[in-house]
Amino acid sequence: MRHRFPNRASITAILLSAACGTEGASVLSSSTNGDCAAATAKLQSCFPGEAVPPTCDEATAVDIASQSCSELQASGGKSDSPLTCLWMPWLCAGGSTTTPSETEASALTIAVSHCWGSAFSEDDCSGTSSLSCAQVVLFDASGSEVARAFSGEGGITRFDDIEPGTYTVRVLDRSGKLAKQVVGDLATSVEPAEIVVDVTSEPTRAELNLTMASQETVRACSFVGVDLLVTNAAGEKLDPDEVEWSWIVRYERPDGEIELTRPFRYGAEAETEADVINRFGVHRIYSGEHTFEAIRVDIPSYERKNNPDYESLLERRRVDGVDAQAITLKVLKKDLPTDLEFETSIVDPLAE
Questions:
Q1: Is the domain defined by 108-217 classed in CATH 2.60.40.10?
Q2: Most confident of 83-97, 147-161, 165-179
Q3: What does each C-alpha distance from 345 to 3, 4, 228, 322, 330 come to in angstroms?
Q4: 1-23+220-352: what CATH class?
């Protein structure tokens, strides 16, 4: 369900779970279906300057493959729409967001995925999908904890400042217990999610493929979607097309990483024009209190393009003298890892 609340910086919204979400996207392999291949080819053709990560959401792929480049690039069927962004992260962040990979050398890189296959066989690993927000803990040879972190986009966790040696890597579920992994190729078995790795002077990489059910017990984060109503001082709803380019939403993660997006015009569920809304969303939100900032900008029509450089727009087009409006929300641990949605409203001080 959705949770409505007045938009005041001092008010916290307790989010309630909504429809179940999906984690990651299936890793492309020789068994990937034709829809994914066709959509990947279409994106490579339409956006030749962008790197296409090796992931695919099949439902989105069908939609993308059926559209022309002009339709994907058009403002009405935005290539950087929230749905497409679930598959192609760079489409949401002006081409600047990339899935973490070993191109940035780290002492130890851990890739966490979950298997998918038969629901009746726990050790079936017909394919894998990346698993973000999994808690990865590193222990040295003496059994002492060295570091812990959550897997990021693409299921990647990096440990940079560690010395060469033998380490034990464990993946924990949300209760703090060892998760389960599928090991083996032809003959598979289910074992505790724990591996031993030898770190040398060269970058080291290791993988864990968790059981299919692990995505519901291990993921420690949710996708947060926000339906944003923007009005004038009289309470009248403003044009969603203009709202989309009048605000940039900023979110600073606990580790200092900055996420920038905008409130997209969203009319997929609208029966009339009056039902069209503005919506923004952020992935990998952990339990706790979080504050988003809605920042007023003035972006001319010639800069209203797909895949914008939000950082540049914010630097050049922020409206002086207009304070950012804070939207504070609280995510409860018990609601993880389902998608969470809420609705709120703000007043545009510049609107008549």
A1: yes
A2: 165-179
A3: 12, 9, 5, 17, 17
A4: mainly beta
